[in-house]
Amino acid sequence: MPKIDLSDAALTRITATLAQTAEEHDRTAAFPWAGLSAVHEAGLLRLGIGTRYGGEELTAVDGVRVFEALGEGDPSVALITAMTVFQHAHQARAPWWPEALYRRVLTESTDRPTLLNAIRAEPEWGAPARGGLPATTITQTADGWLLNGHKGFATGSEGLAYHLVWAATSDDDPLLAHAIVPADSPGIRVERTWDHLGMRASSTHDVIYTDVLIASENFVGTPHSQLPREFAAGNSVSLAISALYVGVARAAQRFFTTFAHDRVPTSLGRPIATTERIQTVAGEIEAQLVGAEEILFGLAARFDAGDPSAPQRAGVAKLLTSRAAISAVQAAVAAIGNPALTRHHPLERHLRDVYGARPHPPQDDAALLNAGRAALARRPRPSDPTAAPDTPDTPDTTDTAGESR
After folding, report:
1. Same domain, 214 and 256
2. What is the CATH number of the domain that holds 95?
3. What are 212's strand-pairing partners?
4. Domain C-terminal end among 56, 88, 113
5. Which of 29, 60, 82, 335 could form a disulfide with 303 if both were Cys (CB 3.0 to 4.6 A apart)?
């Protein structure tokens, strides 16, 4: 496959390109084909494709770089892109697609934006990591499998080429797996339910599947009794979601800096950027973002080095970087005041978008609970001060590659 340019200059260009249409996408909430076409032309929708298929290995550090740049340009486009990249990365680590079908996906991906996403959450059920079985069912027939169900929060829904739908059979010990469903299959209906404060162009709508017929090889289930509990987010690509929202905060910082230099109140007679108050706020914003980036790049380097402790830190990293990105944008809004909240300026959009970091798994309560349990488990037994600490439970993180919100 063609080599992908991940230089700083190339990423700066794609940030600028996405920023040109981000406001329009936000206002209309229409599917952001313009931005995704630019990402496709830059080759970034092919990130994560395994070397066995002619792709290039995506390091964790480069994943952070790329998605911070995309998030700074248009976070809705970045999120849809992330869902596709995650699926390629998963296939590279643990192949599960029918070989011929996946190679067809790769051929399509060189010609046009070919979007993938794991559709898992349901309106009544929530997310798989919180426990329980999906109400979406899949039934074997003489011609293949019939899929029926109602999914929610399906990022990229209107533009997907393939839906990877988490479903279960009706057996006493049901089989569970992602069913590979071509988007042009009869029986798929997207309901435009996504009308949120931010990330408005992410097309995170509900999808209804009614007697959708798929090929026999497109569903290979595992008995529920044999599936491990869902812990799924301790992999390096999960850092991309956090990086995306740090990118949103960098975009807010860029506007804040420009506004501070351009704003000259008559009572002051000089740019507000020359005042200690604004300089202090600028320092606070930079401190928050430097801290977030150090966490992300430091943890990414641990993943790339094969540090076994890296997956256990992913949940806390998401919590800390989300807090930092939100705090940075809030500081800019508070300092500017009324002009920050008008739709004539992009800062209010950045504020709305950065709040989208919170619902992504693991949410704050889950991240803190697991971090706390792991920390408490490291205490030696009182009866034997020299004893090794208890082994902490596997961190209960959530598969950001498999669902959003």
Report:
1. no
2. 1.10.540.10
3. 147
4. 113
5. 60
Go through 311-340 and write b for each residue having 16 or more CB atoms within 10 A of its CB, e for each that does not. bbbbbbbbbbbbbbbbbbbbbbbebbeeeb
Q: How far apart are the C-alpha atoms of 92 and 63, rounded to whole Å?
A: 15
CA distances for 98 relative to 56, 138, 226, angstroms:
21, 18, 22
Task: Give the tens place of pLDDT for each residue, 172-209.
Answer: 999 999 999 999 999 999 999 999 999 999 999 999 99
Under the banding of pLDDT at 50, 70 and 90, the label for residue 132 is confident
Q: Closest Cα partner for 320 from 301, 285, 295, 303?
A: 295
How many structural domains is the chain composed of? 3
Q: Classify burial at 98, counting beta carbons within 10 Å of its beta carbon; exposed 0-12, middle 13-18, buried 19 or more.
A: middle
Phi, psi of 304 (to 5 degrees): -65, -30
Helix residue spans in 305-363 (DSSP H) = 310-336, 347-354
In a domain, 169, yes or no: yes
3-state helix, strand, coil in the chain (%, to 5): 50, 15, 35
Three-point CA angle 327, 235, 319, nearest 5°:
20
**Interacting residues of 349 by C-beta distance below 8 A, sequence separation 6+:** 22, 23, 26, 198, 343
Residue 141 to residue 218: CA distance in whole angstroms? 13
> Is the pTM higher than 0.90?
yes
pLDDT one-digit tens code per residue, 141-177: 999 999 999 999 999 999 999 999 999 999 999 999 9
CATH code for the domain in which residue 203 is found: 2.40.110.10
